[in-house]
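Appendix B. One record, verbatim.
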Amino acid sequence: MFYKILPMLLLATILFSCSETKEEKIKIAVGLINSKSFESALAKLDEIISQDSSNAEAHYYSGVAQEGLEDYEKAIECYTKTIEIKPNYVRAFHSRATLNSKIGNFKDVVKDYTILLSIYNDDTDAIFERGRAYYEMNDLESACHDWKTASDMGNMEATRFYDKICTNQSESEPF
């Protein structure tokens, strides 16, 4: 009798140990991203998305992996999908805005941070970075306003920018 049950127990143990939860798959994908194995991470994340297309975390990390592969358009699409699924996903807004800044889409940076600040108005990094985008768009008044606001909230980098650019009104490059 024991010999008939043992193979079934062994098979059940193997099947149970091979089935990963979504959370475990995401942890594995994050590890792959951290080790710069972006394509392997995307394969793992695609598994999750194919089973659950509304998994915001999987879409977010797909964006991170796409960004690692320097496919910025796909990364932005992934971050956008994340935000569509979970509108309060702060990291997705920051990541999309940071990437848009990197590729020079400063209007989109301002838009993302403005939306984010309508949800979390005390995010001094978002206020500061929106100020940088305004600066890149040659809107010094808006840039200085944001840097002053972030500075007043304790953001030391914003203080440095405000003091260097806004109080002197110099044309020097702060970054």
